[in-house]
Design a protein that fits this description.
Two copies of one chain form a homodimer. Chain A is of the alpha+beta class. The first copy, chain A, has a single domain, classed as Winged helix-like DNA-binding domain superfamily/Winged helix DNA-binding domain (Arc Repressor Mutant, subunit A), CATH 1.10.10.10. Helix content of chain A is 26%, strand content 25%. Chain A has three helices and six strands. In chain A, the strands form two sheets. The first copy, chain A, has a three-stranded antiparallel sheet with strand order 1-3-2. In chain A, strands 5-4-6 form a three-stranded mixed sheet, with no helix packed on it. Chains A and B meet through β6 of A and β6 of B. The structure holds a DNA duplex.
DNA sequence: TTACTTTTGCAACTAAGTTGCAGTAAGAAA
DNA sequence: TTTCTTACTGCAACTTAGTTGCAAAAGTAA
């Protein structure tokens, strides 16, 4: 890990994440890039980008995997844990920069969290 | 909705939820009951129980659907929204009775939330 | 260029959850 | 109790997200 080669696929995906402030689902990427690269490649590149700390992943409300760029993470640690928002109507997801206090729970060690707020986005309400 | 018949399948599932304080995944139920009822039935009964306010569902960290009994909900409204905890090692999930403040986000209407805290449970740490 | 290693494409697979339809059983009405 | 209606169930086939194994291609360092 950490030795990512700068291949065409990697550059293509990174470019998409740079342009895109919102999160992008794996499914969207597979569809978007279906003429340019194989879906297996997409899933594997995303895996590599994540383990390298360039993007982070989380689950959307329907059990699909979403990805977005990281800020201040590395392969050693994903510190950029923040809530996400998903619109019930259009399905769009984005990262929120608010920070929510994680309570401590007796007898359990909490390592990270996935907070998804669900509702209506600006264009849908 | 609201007109649930008390069939054998419904009673079987409700009995499991009564015995079980932890949440149960659909997959676990399908496996547990594979000799007693069809998986289609399980998914459909769960759907009915949820829309009737008897159980609530949410996504686990691996994108599987989990269910747990509701307290104080009805078909009209699922008020029993609380965080869940999932153990990274054994995969077990349970409902937490802490309550977390949901921030309000400009330009977005938040209807509900899915908060999953991930870490190590008592028996795994 | 050579040699080595990572990355890619392909095809086949896995697993969760869904759908359509015909048959069965709850339970209200007679 | 029997009848009738409608909800419910089982089956088989399907859909879809994501994974795996392997051979071929492309990075990279020397």
């Amino acid at each position: 890990m950490g030795v990512i080669r700068k291949t065409k696929s990697v550059e293509t995906l990174l470019a998409i994440f740079e342009q895109n402030k919102d999160a992008v689902s794996a499914v969207q990427l597979v569809d978007l890039l279906k003429d340019q690269m194989n879906k297996t490649t997409i899933y594997r590149v995303l895996e590599r980008l994540e383990s390298d700390g360039l993007v982070h992943s989380f689950m959307g409300k329907d059990g699909l995997k979403w990805y977005a760029t990281c800020h201040g993470c590395s392969s050693a640690q994903h510190i950029d844990i923040h809530p996400h928002f998903q619109c019930q109507h259009c399905g769009k997801v984005d990262c929120l920069s608010v920070d929510m206090k994680i309570p401590s729970i007796p007898n359990r060690k909490i390592n990270f969290s996935q907070i998804l707020l669900i509702g209506e986005c600006e264009s849908c309400s």
